[in-house]
Amino acid sequence: MASVHESLYFNPMLTNGVVHANVFGVRDWVTPHKLALLVLLSELGRAGAQLGLLERRRLNRLLLPLLQGPDMALSRLRKAIEECCPHLAGSVHIRLKLMAEGELKDMEQFFDDLSDSFSGTEPEVHKTSVVGLFLRHMILAYNKLSFSQVYKLYTALQQYFQKDEKKNGADENEMELTNPEEMDGKMEKEELDGPLREEEIACSGPLSQKQAEYFLSQQASLLKNDETKALAPASLQKELNNLLKFNPDFAEAHYLSYLNSLRVQDVFSSTHSLLHYFDRLILTGAESKSNGDEGYGRSLRYAALNLAALHCRFGHYQQAELALQEAIRIAQESNDHVCLQHCLSWLYILEQKIFDSCVLLEHSVNKSLHFGLPYLASLGIQSLVQQRAFAGKAANKLMDALKDSDLLHWKHSLSELIDISIAQKTAIWRLYGRSTMALQQAQTLLSMNSLEAVNVGVQQNNTESFAVVLCHLAELHAEQGYFAAASEILKHLKERFPPNSQHAQLWMLFDQKIQFERAMNDGRYHVADSLVAGITALNSIEGVYRKAIVLKAQNQMSEAHKLLQKLLTHCQKIKNTEMVISVLLSIAELYWRSSCHTIALPVLLQALALAREYSLQYLASETVLNLAFSQLILGIPEQALNILHMAIEPVLAHGAVLDKGCAMFLVAKCQVASAASYTPQKKIEALESAILNLNEAKTYFAKVDCKEQLRDVLYFQARLFHTLGKTQERNKCAMLFRQLHQELPAHGVPLINAFK
Questions:
Q1: What residues contact 304, with CB distance under 8 A and at least 6 apart?
Q2: Exposed e or buried b per residue across 632-667, where buried means at least 16 C-beta atoms within 10 angstroms of its C-beta
Q3: Is the dihedral of CA 626, 628, 631, 635 positive or negative?
Q4: Residue 746 burial by CB count (10 A; 0-12/13-18/19+): exposed, middle or buried?
């Protein structure tokens, strides 16, 4: 850590050939790269009216990132200038060559001539403009250098130029051995790489304060809007450590280090950086300058609040509660209502882990609106809607509440919360089994433009909301049998949210689930079993449920039943109603396969009561289908047909293709079973209607490549055609059945004892 003496007095340094000066009051120093920029500005002033309007616009757009950004190699700088104005790039190169290959007095004369830019009644550069301030900073920093430091700067300039010359010579030799078209493509790709690459920021010396601030703000913006274009976690941490080595009290660098550690779920480093950030705020007095003596207390209470949020994120609820109590105590002493409202929101989140209570949340929303905190109020409304959705409230009431929060979003231009609200609607419609509405909401979010201004080339809306919506979209396409489209969406997700990003676990889980369903449909149970471990690592409840499904498909009934009973107890304890219903349906199927049909009925009725209580329409429809199948098994197909008409419409409208096929197959079974008591003519009509339904079911099963169900449908059709005396159609179905039967293993389960 630098001593007080070193920070107050002029301390010239030379690091790896770059001269920089820690001048009190001067935040910039001269480097060879900045000298090249000064030459560019000088040549731009000389060119004057010779430059076209388009070229001048391009150069003006290029100048700001060059002035603010870190030092870069001369070759890259020259390429950037050539894209805007090739003639000017040549002039800059010649001027630098004359200076580097000339004498020291040439550089001295150059800096003397820079002051002339501000002279005259109509100067080339205004003193208060961006370019003018840069020129004045450079002139001031250069004038502060001693003669020995000027000589070191000149030597560094020569090395900077010679390094570029050597690289050009190597490139020319390589181009002679390489296809020119490949080289052009390579150069174009290199130029179009991210906003900041590692070789750009890894300059030969420490960044100036302005460069550091620009670097930190750009990386923070990229982490929020487009994490893929930010530096890799390891590279970013390396650069932050380099910054902190020269300025350990740089609070913003500690905070970016905290955000970077969160990306890789590093609890120790993130806690360490967060504490250092608030320590530096207090030590440097940054808060107290703007808030008086209150600034110190403000830093302390928000430090405790952020620490509570951090512990909550990593699941350390006891430590989070202690930190939150500390934040509440300090906020109450300071009478800080804003901080107290944030504390109240986090208190609800912590208590939600123990018991469901809307009282704190409703109080938080009312108080947030009272104190003019729309962001916090909207988040509270979103949480209330989510909780009430799990509690089974009517969808129309939830949508009305979300409409009220949307008014807040649009009124205050809260772009991020608009995205969260639409993603929430998508998830709610999925929960209630309305896939068409969920698809509409997903498309709405994807077609929206962000309200936040981001740099050109930066992907907008790389947030959790978009990850959630894209995952739902991939699953919806997979359920309808569009596996190629689902793969494309998942491929886009992998590019947009790389494996090391914080939202990557979302698409990883959905990818594993889609692969699992495809393997189960195809009868490749060994492949599905291998995917269970990956699903369990991402979501333990989903993993255990799918393990039970695999065991059930492999006819390991006792093991599957034990696993499902344990899962049922756990889900009832944590109030995961959706999974409870799914487990009950699987248990009922186990009873069918064990020929315990009467035992399955109470289980199905329990599932139906839960589905209707919590307004889970699609699960309710699926449960009714299972009840109809039970009635078919118990010998009352007419009653089964009656209740099928209640449930089949939502399944055909919003269901997955596999469920549609199973529903039509069940209708056909019930029609055939009911036809036994019909007159001969009416029986023939019923069987022909059943064949049509079987054709529809066969189309659905073929769409998702469900070979086992296809085999069963073909067997059933062959029997019906034989009954109707249609020999040619029977033989065709029999041939297709035989092909599938030879391809698939037979488990010895009777055909009638399986609904799905």
A1: 323, 324, 326, 327, 330
A2: bbeebbebbbeebeebbebbeebbbbbbbbbbbbbb
A3: negative
A4: exposed
In 10 A of CB 67, how many CB atoms?
17
At 509, the amino acid letter reads L
Rounded Cα–Cα distance for residues 413 and 652 (Å): 39
Helix, strand, or coil (residue 298): helix
The string of pLDDT tens digits covering residues 446-495 is 887 654 544 444 445 678 888 999 999 999 999 998 999 999 999 999 98
Separation of first and last alpha carbons in the chain: 69
Region 547-575: mean pLDDT is: 92
| Residue in this structure with the two tokens 């041939």, named with its chain if needed | 735
Q: With 0-12 CB in 10 A as exposed, 13-18 as middle and 19+ as buried, what is 98?
A: exposed
b/e 159-195 (16+ beta carbons within 10 angstroms → b): bbbeebeeeeeeeeeeeeeeeeeeeeeeeeeeeeeeb
Q: What is the pLDDT of residues 625-647, one digit of tens each?
A: 999 998 888 888 888 888 888 78
Closest CA to 273 of 318, 317, 243, 312: 243
Residue 641's alpha-carbon distances to 603, 632, 653, 688, in angstroms, are: 21, 9, 19, 16
3-state SS, one letter per residue, for 626-663: HHHHHHHHCCCHHHHHHHHHHHHHHHHHHCCHHHHHHH
How far does Cα 641 stand from its chain's mean position? Answer: 45
Alpha-carbon distance of 253 to 756, in angstroms, equals 57
Tally Cβ neighbours within 10 Å of residue 392. Answer: 16
577, 615 in Cβ contact below 8 A? no
- The angle subtended at Cα 78 by Cα 76 and Cα 81, nearest 5°, is 110
The type of residue at 652 is: L
* CA distance linking residue 275 with residue 353, whole number of Å: 26
Handedness of CA 291, 452, 261, 345 (dihedral sign): positive
- CB proximity list for 46: less than 8 A, separation 6 or greater: 91
- The pTM of this model reads 0.75
Provide the token pair at 575.
Answer: 């109030």
Helix axes 464-479, 504-521, angle to 10 degrees: 10
The Cα–Cα gap between 177 and 646 comes to 74
As a whole number of angstroms, the distance between CA 417 and CA 250 comes to: 31
pLDDT digits (tens, 9 = 90+) for 648-689: 888 998 889 999 999 999 999 998 988 888 888 888 888 999
Distance between CA atoms of 264 and 270, rounded to whole angstroms? 10
Alpha-carbon distance of 550 to 560, in angstroms, equals 8
Give the CB-side neighbour count of residue 566, counting CA atoms within 13 A: 12
Task: Give ∠ CA 432-436-439 in degrees, rounded to 5.
Answer: 100
176, 250, 318, 509, 518 from 540: Cα distances, Å: 58, 41, 22, 11, 20
Residue 717 to residue 725: CA distance in whole angstroms: 12
Q: Which residues contact 79 (CB under 8 A, 6 or more apart)?
A: 187, 191
Provide DSSP, 40-89.
Answer: HHHHHHHHGGGS-HHHHHHHHHHHHHHHHS----HHHHHHHHHHH-HHHH
Contacts of 673-680 with C-beta under 8 Å, sequence gap 24+, read 673/632, 673/637, 673/640, 674/637, 674/638, 674/641
Q: Is 16 left (phi over 0), alpha (psi -120 to 50) or beta?
A: left
Instruction: Say whether 17 sits in a helix, a strand or coil.
Output: coil
DSSP H or E segment with residue 19: strand 18-21
Say which DSSP state 116 is in.
Answer: G
Q: Can you tell me the distance from the alpha carbon of 26 to that of 743, in angstroms, rounded to the nearest whole number?
A: 79
Q: Is 687 left (phi over 0), alpha (psi -120 to 50) or beta?
A: alpha
